[in-house]
Design a protein that fits this description.
The chain has helices at residues 7-26, 31-49, 54-61, 65-74. The chain is an all-alpha fold. The chain is globular. The two termini are 17 Å apart.
Amino acid sequence: MRWGPRREERGNLKQQLETLVRLMVERGILFEEAVGELEKKFIKQVLEHVHGNQCRAAQILGIHRNTLSRKIAQYKLSQPKQNSR
């Protein structure tokens, strides 16, 4: 099962992202802070989507599982409970 927006929705998301970035620049939000918040929220959303399965989340994110574990600790993300199947 594919996760994420359909091709036609991506254009709209890119426009929304451009607007968000413009607002962040106007309000003086630092690049490092913006990137950190985006990464944290992105990881949290993917973990919720896969019910805490770090191997699957790392696959979706395109990073190594050890990198994901390090980032979970870095951002102090609470782990959603994995479903036992």
